[in-house]
């Protein structure tokens, strides 16, 4: 039966039934099987070699028919044969026309079709109705407890989870509001006493999608049965590639130069450039071999004493923060938002109200009377200014101060005590993430200091500050 908030609780089918289901629906396997890795049965299912495999000698390891690929196009094709699904998608407007919106609602709809507690016929069953019953529960951070979230204080994962939960709740309310007047939805999804769907169910379908969606060439974000059972390895450890063949099918092929022994694991990459935070956020793990946080997104604020603060926030089209990343021998950063933070009216920034054709007032940002199409345009304009080195120095000083604050927060929260109700996996992941992010932040602080020392010797900067060549620069650029 459907249990409130535990969608997976009533969708479970044993993985031993997966291959018969897949082959019945046109999937072909050559030299591989799906199941637990020998010796690692508690780790879940993966793609395993049934025999010795070698590049150049193998046809595709898996071929998944195009009609079994769960994509935006696939959902729309299904809706042509299912009036109730079409009604659902139409009710959602723009959200139902996105890959994410269409696929999440499709997953929830398939769960409803399978529900034995819905006595009347809902929807038209299809092969993917059974597919979602094989998907395991994912212990993504959105399902961690409040106590487990608290041990993330000081990491970039904590605000990311908060933002995600807020976003999920907005989506859930949007779906509920949009579908509330559809007869069967009103009765079986949203009825105050007897409705089955809760916010936790929306988190479940989000976890299914977020942890398994692959960006397939020529298809876009989608879920591909069999291929999405493969685990992740980065760099040279990645054993196989996924792509679309000439017939539109999804295929899994061995990488050039790769050989896999019988019973060996066949891995794919979920994205070699993903940082530690994103790996935990989307997939619930960090590779044991990961020795760097790789990428961090750190939030930025506009100071309260900035006279244009409210206007800047209103016109900004950039994420309010900066991306810090590891380039091997050094760190670097990028941000569109920082340039909005570090310039003001006296530099040439203007915020004006313009009247549109229909008579409404619209706020616009300008740089020296030139209208900005978006915040991303600002950096290019500043680069052409004589005071570019001054603007860079301001930006670097602000970023260094923000990095210092993040470092201080990690040190102040220290190693949090492990409460009785904190599970082993969240505890280990939180500790590892703190170590990796602290290391990257400390490296970045030193690199930003080096950038600052170079910029402060610029003749443009010295002239701007009114310094003689022999004077030391002691200005506080924070």
From TrEMBL:
InterPro entries for the chain: SET_dom, SET_dom_sf, SETD3_SETD6_MTase
GO molecular function: protein-lysine N-methyltransferase activity
SUPFAM superfamilies xref list: SET domain
GO terms under cellular component: nucleus
Domain SET residue range list: 30-271
Protein name as it appears in the record: SET domain-containing protein
Organism for this UniProt entry: Mytilinidion resinicola
Phylogenetic classification of the source organism: Eukaryota, Fungi, Dikarya, Ascomycota, Pezizomycotina
